[in-house]
Amino acid sequence: MRLQFVGGDSGNTGSPRVYKTDRGTLVIQGYIVDDPAALADAKAPAHETLVEIPYSLLKYLPRDVE
């Protein structure tokens, strides 16, 4: 998988950030959610995780992803 930087509030380094992939998906770099109650609410399987991002990052989400 290859990533293309779309945008981020921290500029070219740091977190949070949004990437487009060559597979037609998005990758979000953000803050690890490790709160047990939040993880239980989401019911995420063991092979997945939750990443928290601020609302301000949504402006970088591309509209052309299908």
Structural class call reads mainly beta
**Record field, number of beta strands:** 5
Strand content: 25-35%
Helix-strand pattern: EEEEHE
Question: Widest sheet: strand order?
Answer: 1-2-3
Distance between the termini: 17 Å
Uncertain spans:
none
**How many helical elements?**
1
Describe the structure.
It is a single chain. A hairpin with an 8-residue loop joins strand 1 (3-8) and strand 2 (17-21). The protein has one domain. It is mainly beta. Helix content is 11%, strand content 29%. The longest helix is centred in the middle third of the chain and has 7 residues, at 36-42. The chain is built from one helix and five strands, in the order E-E-E-E-H-E. It has a three-stranded antiparallel sheet, with no helix packed on it. The protein has a two-stranded antiparallel sheet with strand order 4-5. The chain is globular and about 30 Å long.
